[in-house]
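Person: I keep going back and forth on a fold encoding question. Show me how you would write down a chain together with its backbone fold. Please set it down just below, with no commentary around it:
Helper:
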Amino acid sequence: MRRPMNENDGSAARGFDPDTAPDLSKDGWPEKFGKAPVRRGRPPKARPKVSTTIRLSQEVIDH
């Protein structure tokens, strides 16, 4: 069931008819989707940051 689009709803392009969308269950699309790499999250950095801790004496903290 299509929900009516009001003028404040920016979730769909104006004039888009979902009935004209291509059928992605045919014409080799399932195979293409199956071969597509799954990318989740941010890509890993070449030089990631390293977690470390430092212990300081109370005199250094007070200074």
